[in-house]
Write a structure and sequence with these properties.
It contains five helices and no strands. It has helices spanning 2-15, 21-29, 31-63, 70-87, 89-108.
């Protein structure tokens, strides 16, 4: 099913190379119905992202950081993600270098 969805997205990208996915919806379905579909897409994406962040935070709290509050773990996770998205892929590498030292320190303690 994922491959089918990929090919649908790819064919839409080939037909409308200068539009985001919400723009495709307005071009295909019209101004109002396309706006609603685009809004639903954004809301579903936000829900899935929040759900993944929560699940990852729960995993970290239950397995490794048992004394740390879930809010602190999720807040730091979201801050790191926002930092990487704002500054680009190079920052991802630099952040990984910084956090590997932190993780090694945690393992040794």
């Amino acid at each position: 099913m994922g491959m089918v969805l990929f090919f649908i997205y790819y064919s839409l990208f080939r037909q409308y190379p200068n539009f985001p996915l919400t723009g495709y919806a307005r071009e295909i379905f019209g101004k109002y119905l396309g706006w609603i579909i685009g809004l639903l897409y954004v809301l579903i994406f936000l829900y899935m992202s929040a759900r993944n962040a929560r699940d990852f935070g729960d995993l970290l709290v239950s397995s490794t950081l048992t004394e740390t509050p879930l809010l602190a773990v999720n807040f730091s996770l979201v801050l790191v993600i926002c930092y990487v998205l704002y500054l680009g892929i190079e920052v991802l590498g630099r952040t990984a270098e910084a956090f590997i030292v932190f993780l090694l320190f945690l393992v040794l303690m």
